[in-house]
Amino acid sequence: xxxxxxxxxxxxxxxxxxxxxxxxxxxxxxxxxxxxxxxxxxxxxxxxxxxxxxxxxxxxxxxxxxxxxxxxxxxxxxxxxxxxxxxxxxxxxxxxxxxxxxxxxx
DNA sequence: TTACTGACCTTTT
DNA sequence: AAAAAGGCCAGTA
Length: 106
Description:
single chain; mainly alpha; two-stranded parallel sheet; 4% strand; DNA-binding
């Protein structure tokens, strides 16, 4: 039985909203907390389709290697500057230390 | 209904 | 370390 679309999407949105300032979460992490382990791709779709409409902190979502998934000239620079403005540090390989900045819900 | 797509992930080369 | 392969999900044509 497949899950109704609005439930999964609403959960994804709700969880993204919980990521605090100065922290980041991965797509897969969001998917797991939304109750669907393999829905990482859906997370990206939700962000793409309604990050603006739902007023989501889209910039706090990065991929599992701690890097920004957006391509240069396609939002990458904006996301990076938004994160840096929140105090997130990027190392020389342009990576974020997930152990330190990764969101760990309580 | 099938085929393709996207801001992905994990395992295996 | 880096790249390829296979998997997974829902929306759109």
